[in-house]
Amino acid sequence: MKLKRLIAMIASAALLAAVFAGCGTKQADSGKLKIIATIYPEYEWVKNIVGDADGVEVSLLLDKGVDLHSFEPTAKDIVDISSCDVFIYNGGESDEWVNDVLKEAQNKSITAVDLLDELGEAAKEEKLVEGMQTEPKENESGEEGTEYDEHIWLSLKNAEALTKRLCDKLCEKDPGNKAVYEKNAGEYTEKLGTLDKQYEQTVKEAKNDTLVFADRFPFRYLTDDYNINYYAAFSGCSAESEASFQTLVFLADKLNELDLNKLVIIDGSDKKIADAVIDTSKRKDVKTLTLNSMQSAIGDDDTYTGIMESNLKVLKEALN
């Protein structure tokens, strides 16, 4: 675990112990089934499953706009997780802190759901494609280790499969609301499946089959779903923000070689790399398009399916 996280965890644990001591290690029980989801897309899936089920409270851990890659839990977060009934987290390197929190959980019957683990063989390793700027990946022992792509929510097929798994988990935990959960999950997965088919049709009818990203690339699950080729400056979990001249030239050459006039970035980008790639390509007709990775700011009126519908429109333009 990174030193900064370790220090934060020790400080939080000390404060957590003080909190529990001050309240006799017993939290006030509202009588509701308390569910906490770490990030927005998965919170949305759970909210759609729960619907108007009686006696259920669903909370989002990370505020909208907080990136899971840099998140560190506060003492309050640890207390909330420790006393909830169901804790749903993404899994992967960014969630290494979860194991330490769960070991000290006050509620020993907490149901913890690691969604990356739930994907099983469908989980994908981080992949470096031609032209991507690389950086060393190390595990806690200091050796280079396997890192899984954490951006599982950017696949509608994953969303559908994980909604079903979450429904099963909630039915086991709260059988009294099983009928409600199964009905809501069925309706929601049908909606996800319809949108998935729209993506398939859009890609099938597209003029091109390749995307060029002047940014990090968190969309591997999505592009693999529909057999879309791609080139990008960095991998999805990269901490890099400055592209080398070699990377800029590579991406610019791909625009020229493939005769593409669309360049893609992700939400929150300052467009500096995109502008540099366009300048290097010498093309005057390149348009920059933005795909929403749901890693940064989410509007109050946004929904998971709404954002994926908007991404479909962008994808259609990018491939034509």
Structural summary, described in words:
- With 320 residues, the chain is of the alpha/beta class.
- The chain folds into two domains: 3-115 and 150-194, 3-Layer(aba) Sandwich (Rossmann fold); 207-318, Nitrogenase molybdenum iron protein domain (Rossmann fold, 3-Layer(aba) Sandwich), CATH 3.40.50.1980.
- 44% of the residues lie in helices and 13% in strands.
- It is built from eleven helices and eight strands.
- It has helices at residues 3-22, 40-50, 75-82, 97-103, 115-119, 156-173, 178-205, 220-225, 245-257, 272-281, 304-318; strands at residues 33-37, 56-60, 86-89, 111-114, 210-217, 229-235, 262-266, 287-291.
- Strands 2-1-3-4 form a four-stranded parallel beta sheet.
- Helix 8 links the parallel strand 5 and strand 6 (229-235).
- Helix 2 (40-50) packs across helix 7 (178-205).
- It is globular.
- Mean pLDDT is 87; it is low at 16-28 and 138-142.
Features:
about 325 residues, two-stranded parallel sheet, 11 helices, globular, four-stranded parallel sheet, 2 domains, Rossmann fold, alpha/beta, 8 strands
Write the layout of secondary structure elements.
Elements: H1 3-22, E1 33-37, H2 40-50, E2 56-60, H3 75-82, E3 86-89, H4 97-103, E4 111-114, H5 115-119, H6 156-173, H7 178-205, E5 210-217, H8 220-225, E6 229-235, H9 245-257, E7 262-266, H10 272-281, E8 287-291, H11 304-318
Parallel strand pairs: 1-2, 1-3, 3-4, 5-6, 7-8
Helix pairs in contact: 1-3, 2-6, 2-7, 6-7, 7-11, 9-10
